[in-house]
Fold:
Amino acid sequence: MSRRRPIYEGKAKILYEGPEPGTLVQYFKDDATAFNAQKKGTIEGKGVLNNRISEHVMTLLGNVGIPTHFIRRLNMREQLVKRVDIIPIEVIVRNIAAGSLSKRLGIEEGTPLPRSVIEFCYKSDEHGDPLVGEDLITAMGWMNPRELDEVMGLSLRVNDFMSGLFAGIGIKLVDFKLEFGRYYVNEEEHQILLADEISPDNCRLWDAATSEKLDKDRFRRDLGGVAEAYQTIARRLGIRIDPQTEN
Structure:
């Protein structure tokens, strides 16, 4: 890993120059952050679990026609992905009121929403990832209207698929965050791809019977048992892994 050229380091991952043109190696760290990195910690084995969970879900999404940046898993902590220009907008899909939505609107956490809701945030830790509207997104050139429509359509398709996937293993998909990027086929043509990761780091996942939190809220709210919760998600998805030994 030390011989690779680092391209970017985020809160939970490092991107390295890939072995082939147009590729990157995505390395999953054990670092955990919350509240725009105001809270920090380390959860042993989290990177291994997120790598395997994201591989599993991204592969299934690709199988149903959702275009993603995922190519293949390289080892327990790394995967090969297509190099994309990340669109500076986080897409949040909500099915059940929780987190900031409950705080902003005074809706009791756990209240099912009448329909799935999409929100957009501008990716800026400095400014706290503020909510932005569709008009501002297109006015600022972060996406053009066609790209915005495509991203919204893909986000709802991801939600439909993942809601069914998790319901089938006794888990409620409360909400989740997506990132998208532009993959350039040539200088003039590009494709919108689902990027980043799909894991308990960016999804709220509750046990369907007990509403026990099985996601990063266990770290945010000092509930403990973060790694165990992520292991529960992996196990229910049929992923066999021991993060303590497979690093």
The chain is about 30% helix and 30% strand. The first helix runs from residue 46 to 63. Residues 85-225 form a domain with the D-amino Acid Aminotransferase; Chain A, domain 1 fold (CATH 3.30.470.20). The radius of gyration is 17 Å.
